[in-house]
Amino acid sequence: MNILDLVGNTPLLELPKISLDAGKPRPGGISLYAKAEFCNPSGSVKDRAAKAMILGGIAEGKLTPGKTIIDATSGNTGIAYSMMGAVLGFPVKVFLPSNASAERKGIMRQYGAEIVETSPLEGSDGAFLAAKEEAEAHPEKYFYPNQYNNDANWKAHYQGTGLEIWEQTQGKLTHFICGMGTSGTFMGTARRLKELKADAAVIAVQPDSPFHGIEGTKHMDSTIKPGFYDENQGDAVLEVNTEEAYGIARRLAREEGIHVGVSSAANVLAALKLAETLEGPGVIVTILCDTGMRYVSDHFWNGSL
Predict the structure, then answer these.
(1) Assigned CATH for 3-43+154-302
(2) Ranges of each domain in the chain
(3) Among the CATH numbers 2.120.10.30, 3.40.50.1100, 1.10.1040.10, 3.30.1360.130, which is that of 46-143?
(4) What digits encode the pLDDT tens for the residues 243-287?
(5) Long-range contacts made by residues 9-15, C-beta under 8 angstroms, separation at least 24?
């Protein structure tokens, strides 16, 4: 066994305290669960897609000795690439916005990755375009997984995350709700759950503004859309506010003892908003995308509840 064997099969956690509102249980017997993707070996859900894309590249003969893995990232996929490159013996070069947290940059460098910082004003789109340009200019030098346009991304969740959720809820899931960055987690998981239970509701989450602070998520109408993103895949889209997500991140740490990043908190916030609209019993599942340890220097931790 090596560390890549630890990817997937993450726990499904119930969130009993965060599900309370003013001391009252959510109405109608609604249960809220979250997939603890921070238990993956590099600390995020992106381990699943990174593993699938890298091993797929090796199997297809595209990633060969001497080549460097290159891609754009907002942080988590870059960390996953960096860890896996270290394990498999491939150099890693990642492009990311310069305003990414010092913790994320530090982790990648500690795994041995080279980081190219791009303009924070251009966000993840700027990093994507810069990585694409570099990869296309030197195809002999790089293996470019292109996480925004690689079907192995969403298929990792179709084959893994979705089936795991189904089994862990014993088929009782009624709603799946999740944010979108590359959209791979949502697309793959939603497809699998819809196949297993046609009447399950699958709801996408996005920030309520193009200018937001929910790292790792996209406001799809104002950004370059991933190639495999299908706006018809979800039954609805629920928008969440950055400041409210910050508050949920603090509550998760202080009430549930679960230290996660803002994208995870945004997912839980959306799940809570969804629960408010349900009249009958339900089993809602969302994703805790990554550990909060890579955001400890971010200012929002100092806010009040």
Answers:
(1) 3.40.50.1100
(2) 3-43+154-302, 46-143
(3) 3.40.50.1100
(4) 999 999 999 999 999 999 999 999 999 999 999 999 888 999 999
(5) 9/164, 10/35, 10/36, 10/37, 10/39, 10/40, 10/164, 11/35, 11/36, 11/39, 12/36, 12/164, 12/165, 12/168, 12/169, 12/285, 13/258, 13/288, 15/252, 15/256, 15/258, 15/268
Q: Could you read off the pLDDT of 20-53 as tens digits, one per residue?
A: 653 445 545 889 999 999 999 999 999 999 999 9
Q: Which residues are catalytic?
A: 46, 263
